[in-house]
Amino acid sequence: MMGSASNEKIGVLLASLPARFTGKVCEIANRTKKLGQDDPRRITHSLKVGFALTLVSLFYYYQPLYNSFGASAMWAVVTVIVVFEFSVGATLGKGLNRGLATLVAGALGIGAHHLASLSGHIGEPILLGIFVFLQAATSTFIRFFPKIKARYDYGLLIFILTFSLISVSGFRDDEVLELARKRISTIFIGGSACVIVSILVFPVWAGEDLHYLIAANIEKLGNFLEGFGGEYFKTLEDIAESKDDKAFLLGYKSVLNSKSSEESLANFARWEPGHGRFSFRHPWTQYLKVGALIRQCSYRIEALHGRLITADVQVSPEIRNRIEESCTKLSLESCKALKALASDFRIMTKSPSADPHIANAKAAAKSLKSLLKSGLWEDIDLLEVVPAATVASLLLDVVNCTEKIVESVYELGSLANFETVEATVSPEKSHELGKICSDKKSPMMDCPHVVVKITESPPVLPVNIGKTGQQVLEV
What whole-number distance in Å separates Cα of residue 225 and Cα of residue 357? Predict the structure, then answer.
């Protein structure tokens, strides 16, 4: 009986293996497809690495080139493997670090070998050991400096490796100068191949990624604030009927952990040459300041989100009616300011489109403060007021954070020479103007003309209509 039961289990297991294997293969295929769809540049990067590696491998396969470099040609292959990164900035940073470190360490290694050889056969290994110890200990300690570690850590690592290889191997190899020349040449060839392919073949710029990451983070905060008021002040009937997707309320969570990504992208961007509207000396440090302010705002939003998922979401109708208007307006105006700012920032323009919303948010904040300080709460239980007062206080902090973000982005726009736009078309006015023109059978006949006065910016919002039917813009 025991044997037959065991055989049945083994049979069932063997029978299910094909289906399990097929399911696993399909799961891996779906994950691979999703990985490529999320960012198609990953596929391009993989092909670029393969192309660069094949290119430098010719130094090992092609006999005339192999005769020139010998086994040292393998260093070109190794260089491509360790240097080629996803973005141009990361590749340039690693390539320059490796190239300069190899050059300096090679020269010092040859010098150390020459000095050690003057001390005789007995003193040479002792002196070489002292040199290796001193440079390794000194270089390793220098790597602990934060600024050095951020930009030159890889270079110092290669410096230690190259100096040790040349100085130590030179003790057994008389042609140490030729050895150093071959290694430096092949490393330079491998690094050059990486940089050229990275820049010329579908380049990925770390600076652009950082710019769009900051813009997306600002917009995520705006998305949360846009829906917060409606969610917090819902009645029991609204909650029962609501089946909307709440994903927009969770977008801010990625902002909380964006510090490491921003710092890495900013570090890589400093290595990149000028491209597009990003100059070589672009103010990348200011991006980090903006990112820090965005995270400070996201911490307040995290606290606000906590009030949505706790039991105190349903405040009493009396308290809700007193603060709902001010809180909702404050949240919406902050949202509009952030979204307008993100839109202008993404296309690298500097306009005062966020300023009216900031002014409205500050007015709502002032009204909310007056309401909280008034005597309307004396007849209400304090425990019922505290949850709503906490939310109001957090929203007031959000307004202050939003204003700081706007000011910081304006400063960045000035440093980066963003295109100045004196005014923008509000969505409401733009829609009204488009409706007027679309209602006419012939847009060239009856649709009012638009006269725009600008300095160096796109068309802006008409503010009045003259008697002749001509809309005039004052800038």
Answer: 13
pLDDT tens digits for 416-430? 989 887 754 454 443
**Amino acid code (one letter) for 190:** G
Token representation of residue 285: 């440090």
Angle between helices 146-169 and 176-200 (to 10 degrees): 140
Tokens of 12: 């069932």
Residues 49, 160 contacting (CB under 8 angstroms): no
Contact predicate 323/364, CB 8 Å: no
Cβ atoms of residues 73 and 188 within 8 Å = no
Residues paired with residue 419 on neighbouring β-strands, in sequence order:
349
The string over 273-292, giving b where at least 16 C-beta atoms fall within 10 Å of a residue's C-beta and e elsewhere, is eeeeebeeebbbebbbebbe
The 10s digit of each residue's pLDDT in 34-87 is 888 888 999 999 999 999 999 988 877 777 777 777 777 888 888 999 999 999
pLDDT digits over 122-133, tens only? 888 888 889 989
pTM of the model as a whole: 0.79
Please give the span between the terminal C-alpha atoms of the chain, in angstroms, as a whole number: 94
Distance CA 155, CA 164 (A): 14
Task: Report helix angle 120-142 to 146-169, nearest 10.
Answer: 160
Query: Which neighbouring-strand residues pair with 451?
Result: 472
Best CA proximity match to 418, nearest among 344, 349, 345, 346: 349
